[in-house]
Structure formats: structure tokens, C-alpha cells
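Regression report. Comparing outputs from two consecutive submissions.

Submission 1:
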Amino acid sequence: MTVGLVAAALGTLCIPLAPGATVLGAALLVAHQIVGDGGVTLFEVHDRTLRQTLVAPELLARVDGGLRTLGRLATLVGALAGGWLATALGTRFAIGVMVALLGLAAAVAHHRLRHQR
């Protein structure tokens, strides 16, 4: 799970590092797709597996529904905050903040999962 979040952060970091419409820029955007999307897929598989392992079968639909609702709400809040931040301080800065938040999420997940074992 943590590896997926770290890969998603590293993939996202490729976006602000792309210098523009150059070969390097194109390579960084391709790296973003491969590394970032692979990381998100890895995270989602482990997230779902952990949830199915820890939650009682009769409560799983409710937990999934609640987490989807919270996830959509977080997406809305993140989009609004990211748009405001990008307008105020620049797009590359806003993406850098997103990379930092993904790194923080990876650190928190690692800490919590390590103590759960």
C-alpha cells in the first residue's frame, strides 16, 4: 500500500519537472502515466484487499459506500483547493503540494500499517 502511494507521488512529481514540449517533457509525462498510474493501481488493490480482510462481510457494503462517499467529497474539496492554489501561486507549485500530500499519506499509511501487524 505504501509503495503504491510512493509510486503515485513519484509519478506525479514528473509533471512539474517536465520542461515543456520537448523530448524530455514527453518522456516525463509518459513516466508519469506508467509510474503514477501503476502506483495508484497497486494502492487500490491493497486498499480493497485490506478492507475485505478487516471488515465483517455483512458490513462490507456499508463501509465501501461510506468510503466512496468520503472519497468523492475529498475529490471535490481537493479540486477546489487545487484550483484556488494554482490560480494564486501557480500550477507547478500546486502540483508540488499534491506530491507532498501524497508523500505524507504514504508516511502515515506506513506508520499505521507497521503498528497494526
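Submission 2:
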Amino acid sequence: MNIILCGMPCSGKTEVGKKLAEKVKCSFVDIDDLIVEAFAKRYDETKSNREIFIERGEPFFRSLEKEQITSLSAKDEYVIATGGGRFLDLDNVNHLRSIGVIV
């Protein structure tokens, strides 16, 4: 079972997530970090989420985001930090619900 944290930017998901993961003895992952890593690997350039969103557009960013959310299927006993935008897509919501508890 995973614990999935959602909320607005800068609301403390990463900080709380890391502490919670340590407390419940789980691993921690931030979907924002996964997006940045996937982009860097695929395009051989380092960009922040904001830069990816602005330079490539929202549809492109959301497609990377969806890929990373889907990649979490194999994860178990994780605390996962997400952003509020992840919940704009019903497929993302359903997938996240299927792999854990959303807080």
C-alpha cells in the first residue's frame, strides 16, 4: 500500500512526505522529480518542471506526468508526492487510487 500526498505547489508535500516515509519506514518519491529525470534521460537536457511546462506546453508536460504516474504501478510501500495538477486527469486519479491512499 502506498500513501499519496497531493496539494498545491509549495504546500509542503515533499518535506512532509520525506518525514512520513521515514516514520513509516517506506521509500519516498516525488512525481515532479520523476518528470525531470525522465525528460533529462529522453532529451539529454536538464530542465525544471516549470521550464518543461513553459517551453513544451501543458499537453506535453501532462503526457510526461501521466507516464510517470503509470510507472508507479510497480511501487509498493512508498510515500508519493504529487501536485494538484495530477488530479485534472481522471485516469491519473483512478490509477493513483488503485495503488494507494490519497491524502
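Expected: both submissions complete independently.
Actual: both completed, but the second showed a warning that disappeared on reload.
Relevant detail on submission 2: The beta strands are 2-5, 27-30, 78-81, 100-102.
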